[in-house]
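SEVERITY: medium
COMPONENT: batch folding queue
REPORTER: lab tech (J.R.)

DESCRIPTION
The queue accepted two submissions in a row. Attaching both inputs and their returned structure tokens so the on-call engineer can compare them side by side.

ATTACHMENT 1
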Amino acid sequence: MSSKPEIEFQDGPAPVELVIKDLEVGSGKEAQPGDNVTVHYVGVEYDTGEQFDASWDRGEAITFPLRGLIQGWQDGIPGMKVGGRRQLTIPAKLAYGESGGHQLSGKTLVFVIDLLDVLN
């Protein structure tokens, strides 16, 4: 997992529930709800496949508490092990809401997340 992942364009209608797909299963420490995690990630819009953010492009991973993230990450990262790569397809209701002031409100999002570390 030393390189930025490519996210394939998603066919069909956007899912209405969180979809978790392990691309690579890690063998390290397992993330638990409320842990602090260090990750690399890429995020694209489901409908267009357009990238809106990627820690890879900034050249450094980020560390943050799971409880401070969108619900789709809070639900989708626990159970993942360090060294793993997971794809989360997150409906708007678990991302930035169905509507509102955020540029990603109302959008289904796809993230590929590499779990680099779990800190308690």
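ATTACHMENT 2
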Amino acid sequence: MVELTNKEFFQDLDQTIAAQLFEQTTYPWEILPLIKDFVLEVGPTLSVDEYDQVEEDVWIAKSATIAKTATINGPAIIGPDTEVRPGAFIRGNALIGAGCVVGNSTEIKNDILFNNVQVPHYNYVGDSILGYKSHMGAGSITSNVKSDKTNVVIKNGEEKIETGRKKIGAILSSRVEVGCGTILNPGSVVGHDTNIYPLSMVRGCIAPNSIYKNAGEIAQKR
């Protein structure tokens, strides 16, 4: 069993400007429908010395680097020293922290990225929360809708938690390393400091400090 409450699951709430959302809710997936309104509320309060409002509902830190061929739809906040590379597509309802990398051909939609998150090459991240210093290898994606279109159920050992939501991607805690070509199935929850092998297919909840090779082979780090 993995402790799934926000208070226990996330170690670094000081590494996102959305900390109050985590404090106001019990579980991470409860935050997903709140992202849009939070961005719209916080955006106008951001320092004009630090952020530019480049268009309606889009705020970008002056120190961020945005490629000319990137597409950014609001509502969105992009933090200081973050790099958005060529061909990136930010679809909206996106809160991207400081020092992040959103790479070439990466798509972001309804997400919170803590500070120093990297999704640098051909990633799809939808309806997800990526914790501090988490990294998704090239071609790894979140799958956020079940094939039968029913609500996502979080499977934590023998426990099954009904979320009431059809769209939930992945919830990663701090310093998670996702190997290249991995698929994080709807409702995947990965504890802090876990490494996932390349070309993996992840389901359910993975304990912190794990090495995930496949569903039947998950080792604890020593």
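NOTES FROM REPORTER
The CA atoms of residues 153 and 162 lie 5 Å apart.
No errors were logged for either attachment.
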